[in-house]
């Protein structure tokens, strides 16, 4: 499970509001690219893919308890049952006899990911979300490579994020560093 998903699901389960990159939880619902994909209602947890059978949608939903979405031959299966992605109450599809089982494969043990703060703020000029700890903004992923290599050479971990402007595809690539490294990265990239 990706760190963004883990933090969003934790906030969702705690009833907190949080925005990380393209995902936010707000007032008991989870939104991905401003599409509501999960919410708590009076009668339980409800989910949908909001019409998007993307890997990101599947990954976010799989972070929820008692939700296991798999895909075979371009068809989605929710807890082993064919699912068209429309709104469904999770308890209606979960089979009580195996509800206690953990359907997720064990997560591989990896080195800890650097602690990036992926909090975003809306930028009216760009008409998109912009990560707070951005040190580079370009419109081509290829243009990020020299800065990534320079930061890597200096021992500063970075992460590339992509957002598009609302209503049309105009990519915005942001290079994000950990909060503790921001000033050092800015000095390295923009000062002699």
| Number of separate domains | 2
Low-confidence stretches: 96-106
Strand order of the largest sheet: 1-2-3-4-5-9
Structural class: alpha+beta
Written as H for each helix and E for each strand, in order along the chain, the element string is HEEEEEHEEEEHEEEHEEH
The portion of residues assigned to helices is: 10-25%
Q: N-to-C terminal Cα separation, in Å?
A: 40 Å
The number of helical runs is 5
Number of E-type strands: 14
Mean pLDDT, nearest integer? 80
Largest sheet: 6 strands, antiparallel
Q: Report the radius of gyration as a whole number of Å.
A: 19 Å
Proportion of beta-strand residues: 25-35%
Shape, per Cα inertia axes: elongated
Q: Which terms would index this structure?
A:
single chain, 192 residues, Alpha-Beta Plaits, 2 domains, six-stranded antiparallel sheet, three-stranded antiparallel sheet
Description:
This protein is α+β, with helices and mostly antiparallel strands and 192 residues long. The protein folds into two domains: 3-98, no CATH class; 120-190, Alpha-Beta Plaits, CATH 3.30.70. Helix content is 22%, strand content 32%. The protein is built from five helices and 14 strands. The protein has helices spanning 3-14, 55-62, 90-93, 145-153, 182-190, and strands at residues 18-20, 23-26, 29-32, 35-41, 44-47, 69-72, 75-78, 81-82, 88-89, 120-123, 128-131, 134-138, 158-164, 171-177. Strands 1-2-3-4-5-9 form a six-stranded antiparallel β-sheet. Strands 6-7-8 form a three-stranded antiparallel β-sheet. The radius of gyration is 19 Å and the shape is elongated. It starts with a helix and ends with a helix. Mean pLDDT is 80; it is low at 96-106.
């Amino acid at each position: 499970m990706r760190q963004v998903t883990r933090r969003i699901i934790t906030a969702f389960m705690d009833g907190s509001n949080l925005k990380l990159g393209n995902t936010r939880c707000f007032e008991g619902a989870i939104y991905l690219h401003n599409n509501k994909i999960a919410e708590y209602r009076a009668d339980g947890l409800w989910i949908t893919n909001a019409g998007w059978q993307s890997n990101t949608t599947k990954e976010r939903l799989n972070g929820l308890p008692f939700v296991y979405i798999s895909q075979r031959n371009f068809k989605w299966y929710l807890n082993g049952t064919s699912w068209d992605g429309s709104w469904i109450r999770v308890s209606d599809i979960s089979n009580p006899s195996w509800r206690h089982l953990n359907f997720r494969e064990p997560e591989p043990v990896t080195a800890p990911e650097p602690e990036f703060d992926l909090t975003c703020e809306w930028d009216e000029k760009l008409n998109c979300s912009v990560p707070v700890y951005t040190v580079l903004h370009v419109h081509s992923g290829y243009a990020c490579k020299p800065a990534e290599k320079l930061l890597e050479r200096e021992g500063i971990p970075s992460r590339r994020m992509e957002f598009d402007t609302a209503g049309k595809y105009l990519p915005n690539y942001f290079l994000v560093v950990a909060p503790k490294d921001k000033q050092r990265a800015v000095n390295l990239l923009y000062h002699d």
